[in-house]
Design goal:
2 copies of one chain form a homodimer.
Chain A (H helix, E strand, L loop, with lengths): L12 E5 L8 H11 L5 E5 L5 E2 L2 E2 L13 E4 L6 H11 L3 E4 L10 H16 L2 E3 L5 E4 L4 E2 L8 E9 L2 H11 L5 E7 L8 H9 L6 E6 L5 H14 L2 E5 L13 H5 L2 H11 L3 E3 L2 H12 L9 E5 L2 H12 L10 H10 L10 E2 L6 H12 L6 E6 L7 H12 L8 E3 L6 H9 L4 E2 L5 H17 L12 H8 L4 E2 L1 H10 L7 E4 L2 H10 L4 E6 L12 E5 L2 H18 L7 E6 L5 E10 L3 E8 L3 H5 L2 E5 L4 H9 L2 H7 L9 H17 L3 E11 L6 E3 L2 E5 L1
Parallel strand pairs in A: 1-2, 1-5, 5-6, 6-7, 10-11, 10-12, 12-13, 13-14, 15-16, 15-17, 17-18, 18-19
Antiparallel strand pairs in A: 3-4, 8-9, 8-11, 20-30, 21-24, 22-23, 22-24, 25-26, 25-28, 26-27, 28-29, 28-30
Helix pairs in contact in A: 2-3, 5-6, 9-15, 10-15, 11-12, 12-13, 13-14, 16-17, 18-19, 21-23
Chain lengths: ~700, ~700
């Protein structure tokens, strides 16, 4: 896969089909951009009505364009595009960017035009970016096929966007801020090349250290997970997904259905593939910046070195809510700081060097705390002071940072006075932030990435032993399964279910009592009785065949007496559940990602607390364990306030079995086990109730 | 109170004591700033060694300074300050800013120096800002007593800060962005003038439309609440409080020496006084900007008008998570939009006018949706396009906004290309944001403010009837109360408690059964028996005197037989609690704010879910109701999934009674009722267990 898409960012020669000599046209702006940023390849405007535009010789059609030409950029009305694409194919061009809109996004005729584009691409073995996109920029080659005004600095963030406007807006944000990019790719309708293709390409691009993406929808979820899992082992990916809150008019058919918003599957997929999710545009770049700096922290302990208390307090708040800590410094560190800083400086963490702190003091403080074994990350904080040079402080921070492998992040409070200092730090690869609240989320993401790639479990999921034939027979011809049919289905996949059946005679009750071990609950079955206990219709703690037989007779007798008119259909006999913690386990099939497993607190608390977590099948043991541990139900299972821990392994097994069941039978849309009763360690789980909805 | 602090921002004449002619000194920078921004009052540098500095005549000491002089700014070493302050008092100066540090914040001698400053201020009836501060700026008068480089635009945000560095950083952020301020006040150690004094002053300042504050600690909590409650009725207050987390609090206390209270008390106090809390520096100004625009929305329905889909999707996410909705537009609105916009425009909400949207289209779209009865707020969104003038769009948005009382907020995506457009919008009073994620929190805060001031309940809390004498007797000489003593204490304040007492004879048991209505639980009391039920030591559902007498004998007999060696001390007789929802109610005395009431879900869930809310005593009924409703326990009480609602009124009463109890007895540090069992509507509450800790 490696270099196959490189001509999109660094072609030998690029033809611009539909180039205009009118400065008010987008294609004129594109031609300007192609020549403006040092691109050394050939540039060929194509326009039958012009001889030369912006100093470039113009060609009447693509067949006339000389070698070398390996990329065509098409800016023509949609209906004219297929014929031109065909001509590109005949000319032997393998890479095409279609900027033009008017395809699938407008519906109607546009849909068939896009299909035609794909057909031609297939015929000539061409790769297409777009249509309906803003183009590409290769910052290291200087190639620019967009009409965006201005460009950010050259650097190592590779940015992929499903929205051209977001691409343009992002460029506008970062111009002049020293945040460096390797490529920009606006993918438009993704008729051919998708975000996943581009991520796979950038994984091997030596100029790209971190991949950042703005995504509205991922259409091939399983392939995305497969590719992203591999890529994140060597290069971080950070994604901003919009539409996080659009619930749509999705019908709510169960707890699982109402809990799993459209976004839950994306979040699960990102977690499982070690992709870092950004919540906002700012976070996307804040996180990319720190992930791209190349230094991963060993832990979450931060030393803050500041020239003012207030901003340090705000920073500490931001770090603390994002899982970082401000540890005590070692006695040795404090001694060194005490000796080197002004006497009234505060040498606890945060280290307050006071308002007049000099560049040399910053250097001393940063390099000292970086040597402290209690510190994983150092953050120098500077509020601009009239008598201290921000630029000199920046240079001293860079020198100190060079003495250690630990990450150094700078917080320069302000905007007006810190621009030069920030540029100096960014050029040296030190992520620099102007707001304290933007540092916590970025470092929190860095920690999550470091943790995920160190613990990622690539082992294939062990195949679950299951009676598929039995399961298939139960499912056959059904549109849904109630409690009675769900029991044998779960049993076929080795999930322990509470035994229960309806006896219609005392003899049958006795037989069932022998079959189901332990104590039984026995309940009258009648369509005419709502409150069974009011008519003596429930007996508990029945044990043994004789007792069951007697209990059957007693129930019929009592209820007949209390409610002579009721039709009695028999007695429901169930194993009494051992006491356990009740959780919910479910599966809902997601359009993009397939089976989405859910775990959470059971009973009435499911809806009240929305304490649920999700992962996409197939689950690994680690996935299942993580989904339990990230909920409050998981904390309850671990044993609250000295309570004995519950059988978490058995819950993990159940999740794996449900994952397998969902993968084996694509016709199952939803499964819900609620509650699953979890007993003490080693004592297993028991599904008390469940249901299944098929497609 | 009104204009009493005005000379700090607009003096007739200001003396700068400690003025230096050395450009490397802070006081030189202050003198420059005093003369730089159009201040028309007199400026008098005071320095015995100079005749003139920066063109101002210099005076050897303050006694020599001519009239008019009503403000002194002192920049001298701390030990020299008291004598100079004394001289100011003798000269008749009533307003003094002490910039110098070296007072309480350094401890030791500094503490007595600050006490001396206060004594002198008192003697001469002077008001002091500082010491250890950055000074003040009155943007409308042009007066500037700080050494901060640069100034923001003149406008209507009054900013108060307990950190000079945060003041300086904020100025640095906003320079050139068109965000307008009325005053800056850095309060330093707040030896005399506190954040509350300054808020009270700004409430009457005609140039200030919104008060924004950065706060590390509020030392007089009750006075803050009293003042803020009044001020927010006419002018919004937004506060950023640092030390929200343990780590943040530690940074603050190491910085100023004032103890930061638990953040829960601050949050409660802010809610009760309709102060809007900002979570970050950005939010502080994002919220101030929209609160200062002067238009309050009638509801939460937002129309989005955009020239690009991606940014609108991100905006919709941000709005949705902050309680705003994107409603359908009326058919009439859609028809007008369809007629006025390009044919392929999307006239659903968000209205997508497509990339080429012109200034005239923005005007049409904004003014049209503002007339729609389904819309409360309009947000035009612009991603810069090469062929559309951002400035023209800005002017057209302003014209459209002028046609309606509904708020209009602009989202201009980018930085580089939108600066002029943003300035034009800000100058016209239209809050403008560059990031979608910053709009939701700002509008959410605007809605909260609109709601709080419309529902604020100023009625005094009704005095609770209580038996204070009985309560005093119970508390006398105690350091803590167990369950047995807590019961009568709660009863003295009219809180229903489960009856319970130890009987030492069958006759006494019979007597208690007559006294406690309903069913009883009876339990053996013995220091030698751990598991009562194992030895037949518990009987339930006992009703009536005879049954109680028999049960007493039975318990003694059974247990004596099972455990012949155990010493039996009697039988605990308790009313059986009716089934109810278990909640927790508590009180903890906060250093700054006094009694802090707590409500939340009871049982093991308190710790697991941390589903709790807080308010400061005295509570109003509305406070108590709100604290219930903002928790998940409150949702449970309201009746989940068709369940009958519980007696929320009785919970409100209990909170009010606990509030009264805590106010009546300052020696009580903590009270906890856990669980309080809440029965159905009208059926009341019952405290099942409780304890009290005294100081």
């Amino acid at each position: 896969m490696s270099n196959e898409l490189q001509p999109f960012f660094s072609p030998k020669g690029a033809a611009l089909i539909g180039a205009s000599s009118n400065a008010q046209k987008l294609s004129y702006g594109i031609l300007e951009n192609m020549g403006r940023y040092g691109f050394s390849g050939a540039i060929y405007p194509v326009n039958p009505k012009a001889h030369e535009i912006l100093g470039h010789t113009c060609y009447p059609d693509i067949s006339q364009v000389p070698d070398p030409v390996d990329l065509a950029v098409i800016v023509l009305p949609a209906p004219a595009t297929p014929a031109v694409l065909q001509a590109c194919g005949e000319r032997g061009i393998k890479f095409v960017i279609i900027i033009s809109g008017g395809f699938r996004e407008v519906g109607g005729e546009g849909i068939s035009l896009e299909a035609e584009v794909l057909r031609i691409a297939d015929q000539y073995d061409m790769r297409i970016i777009g249509p309906n996109c803003v183009g590409t920029v290769g910052l290291h080659s200087g190639f620019n096929s967009t009409f965006i005004n201005g460009l950010p600095d050259v650097g190592s963030i590779g940015f992929v966007s499903q929205s051209g406007a977001v691409c343009g807006g992002v460029v506008d944000y970062v111009i002049g801020k020293g945040v460096g990019f390797s490529v920009f790719a606006s993918l438009g309708n993704e008729a051919d090349i998708t975000e996943t293709d581009m991520i796979a390409y950038l994984a091997d691009d030596p100029n790209t250290k971190v991949i950042a993406a703005y995504v509205e929808a991922i259409n091939d979820g399983p392939r995305f997970i497969e590719v992203a899992k591999k890529v994140t082992r060597k290069k971080p990916i950070v994604i901003l997904k919009s539409g996080r809150t659009q619930d749509g008019a999705r019908s709510v058919s169960s707890h699982t259905g109402s809990m799993a918003g459209a976004h839950a599957a994306y979040q699960a997929a990102f977690k499982q593939s070690a992709v870092i999710e950004a919540n906002t545009i700012s976070e996307l770049f804040d996180i990319a910046m720190v992930l791209g700096s190349g230094k991963l922290p060993k832990g979450n302990r931060v030393a803050i070195l500041t020239n003012a208390g207030g901003p340090a307090a705000l920073l500490a708040d931001s770090l603390s809510v994002n899982g970082l800590t401000i540890p005590d410094l070692s006695e040795e560190t404090r001694q060194t700081l005490r000796a080197g800083l002004v006497p009234s400086a505060q040498v606890q963490n945060p280290v307050d060097m006071l308002g007049g702190a000099s560049p040399a003091e910053y250097k001393l403080a940063v390099s000292t705390v970086l040597q402290d074994p209690n510190v994983d990350i150092a953050i120098p904080v500077l509020v601009p002071q009239s008598l201290v040079s921000v630029e000199d402080v920046a240079r001293n921070i860079i020198e100190a940072a060079g003495t250690s492998d630990k990450p150094v992040i700078a917080f320069l409070m302000g905007d007006h006075s810190i621009q030069q200092g920030r540029k100096i730090l960014h050029d040296a690869g030190i992520p620099t932030y102007a707001y304290p609240e933007r540092i916590g989320p970025a470092l929190g993401a860095l920690l999550r990435y470091a943790k995920r790639i160190s613990t990622a479990d690539e082992s294939a999921t062990a195949k679950i032993k299951a009676n598929q034939t039995a399961a298939a027979a139960i499912l056959k011809g059904k549109t849904s399964l109630g409690e009675a049919d769900t029991r044998p289905l779960l049993k076929a996949y080795g999930i322990p279910v509470v035994h229960g059946a309806v006896a219609t005679s005392a003899a049958q009750a006795a037989q069932m009592a022998q079959q189901f071990a332990g104590k039984l609950a026995m309940k009258i079955v009648s369509p005419h009785i709502l409150h069974k206990s009011d008519v003596g219709g429930i007996l508990l703690n029945i044990e043994g065949a004789d007792a069951a037989s007697q209990a059957y007779e007693q129930l019929i007798r009592q209820v007949s007496k209390a409610k002579p008119d009721a039709r009695l259909e028999g007695v429901l006999i169930e194993q009494m559940a051992r006491p356990g913690i009740e959780v919910i386990i479910g599966m809902q099939r997601d359009v993009q990602f397939g089976p989405l497993l859910m775990f959470g607190m059971g009973g009435i608390y499911v809806e009240l607390l929305t304490d649920v977590s999700f992962r996409v099948a197939p689950l690994t043991r680690q996935d299942a364990t993580e989904m339990i541990m990230e909920t409050k139900a998981g904390k309850l299972l671990q044993g609250l306030r000295g309570a004995q821990p519950a059988d978490i392994d058995a819950v993990v097994d159940t999740l794996l079995k449900l994952s397998q069941l969902a993968l084996d039978f694509p016709q199952i849309n939803e499964i819900e086990i609620n509650p699953l009763s979890v007993a003490g360690q080693g004592a297993g789980v028991l599904a008390l109730d469940g249901r299944v909805i098929l497609s």
